[in-house]
Q: What sequence folds into this?
């Protein structure tokens, strides 16, 4: 059951950032600095099998626990979720739960407007499984650890790009993400892709959008192949907004950080106004 206690309306919105597959909370360094400078408390989580949680196998229940812990560790008051790719799908699913906290006032979901219930995610999962199996076989035969690229499978999967440094050459070796917490740029093997896509394949992000009771902002790079159902997602939202950032691809927060931050500021203001 939801609590009857609503968050205080004069409290500044705290922000939880959720990364995509095969990356970690360090991808949000630019955005963490931006929202903190504006007076918001903020934290970037590491999902299971990523970063500081590298020893946990990915599951959606485990991802929900990570988000629950992040919210519990923030000061009392309203909370917004900001997720990229897997993090966006996870945030939408978390927001759709009937027992999601009343502190949630909005979700900004980036790079996740292709419904994973359809065939593309199953295809990506099968490709990732093939790549993971090839890496395992090579390790057994040669004794060498290999980190194969998805391009060896002759399929471009925009959502699965490796972690890259944002413009400006920021140091991603260890980033302060919250008091007494750090995010680590651990680069998981391809097994985690199979696990993540397996957990996504049976879920509909459209259904999660319909179930969410809070405003949703969808933010996509214009060159992102995951945009294919953005209008369906927008139409399904109770309170929805869509922003397409020119020139950016899937990793929109790192490829166009200044523009993304301006959009993020507007989204947070919209969440606070509607709350």
A:
């Amino acid at each position: 059951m939801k609590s009857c206690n609503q968050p205080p309306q004069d409290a500044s919105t705290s922000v939880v950032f959720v990364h995509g597959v095969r990356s970690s909370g360090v991808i949000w360094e630019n955005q963490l600095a931006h929202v903190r400078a504006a007076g918001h408390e903020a934290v970037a989580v590491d999902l299971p099998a990523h970063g500081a949680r590298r020893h946990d196998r990915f599951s959606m229940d485990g991802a929900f626990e990570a988000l629950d812990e992040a919210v519990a560790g923030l000061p009392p008051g309203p909370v917004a979720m900001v997720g990229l790719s897997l993090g966006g799908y996870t945030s939408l699913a978390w927001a759709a739960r009937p027992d999601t906290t009343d502190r949630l006032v909005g979700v900004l979901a980036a790079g996740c407007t292709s419904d994973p219930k359809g065939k593309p995610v199953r295809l990506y999962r099968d490709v990732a499984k093939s790549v993971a199996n090839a890496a395992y076989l090579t390790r057994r035969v040669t004794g060498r650890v290999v980190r194969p690229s998805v391009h060896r499978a002759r399929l471009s999967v925009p959502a699965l790009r490796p972690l890259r440094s944002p413009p400006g050459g920021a140091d991603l070796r260890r980033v302060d993400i919250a008091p007494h917490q750090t995010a680590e740029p651990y680069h998981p093997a391809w097994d985690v892709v199979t696990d993540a896509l397996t957990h996504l394949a049976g879920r509909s992000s459209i259904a999660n959008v319909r179930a969410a009771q809070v405003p949703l902002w969808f933010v996509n790079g214009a060159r992102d192949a995951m945009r294919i159902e953005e209008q369906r997602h927008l139409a399904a939202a109770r309170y929805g907004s869509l922003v397409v950032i020119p020139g950016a691809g899937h990793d929109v927060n790192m490829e166009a950080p200044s523009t993304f931050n301006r959009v993020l500021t507007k989204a947070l203001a919209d969440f606070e106004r509607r709350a």
About this structure: The radius of gyration is 18 Å. The longest strand covers residues 104-110.
